TrEMBL record:
GO terms for molecular function: calcium ion binding. SMART domains: EFh. It comes from the Eukaryota. Residues 38-73, 77-108 form the EF-hand domain. Keywords: Calcium, Metal-binding, Muscle protein, Repeat. This is Parvalbumin. The keyword Repeat applies. InterPro entries: EF-hand-dom_pair (IPR011992), EF_Hand_1_Ca_BS (IPR018247), EF_hand_dom (IPR002048), Parvalbumin (IPR008080). It comes from Cyprinodon variegatus. GO terms for cellular component: cytoplasm. SUPFAM superfamilies: EF-hand. The keyword Ligase does not apply.
Length: 108
């Protein structure tokens, strides 16, 4: 499945790079899968896919399943990874990640 115009091989490599529990690093993942180099529109499309309840925010439960948006067979993030990912992205402290916060994470 091409996700936001990403190359399947790059996505697989990015997922393989964080297959072990507690090995997820969002900066490495976004670079490896190619999302970091995509346009603002592509990043917004990726956000819309991850925001499964269409609330306009990515909440903790959606972050936990983040990798599964790229591949259904990918693992869920651990609680530790999820909380670290949320803390990195939640710049306004509201407990969720908005589209602008997500874009800043991707480009970090």
């Amino acid at each position: 499945m091409a996700f936001a115009g990403l190359n399947d091989a790059d996505v697989k490599a990015a997922l393989d790079g964080c297959a072990a529990a507690d090995s997820f690093d969002y900066k490495k993942f976004f670079k490896a899968c190619g999302l970091a180099g995509k346009s603002a529109d592509d990043v917004k499309k990726a956000f819309a896919t991850i925001d499964q309840d269409n609330s306009g925010f990515i909440e903790e439960e959606e972050l936990k399943l983040f990798l599964q948006n790229f591949s259904a067979s990918a693992r869920a993030l651990t609680d530790k990874e999820t909380k670290a990912f949320l803390a990195a992205g939640d710049s306004d402290g509201d407990g969720k990640i908005g589209v602008d916060e997500f874009a800043a994470l991707v480009k970090a």
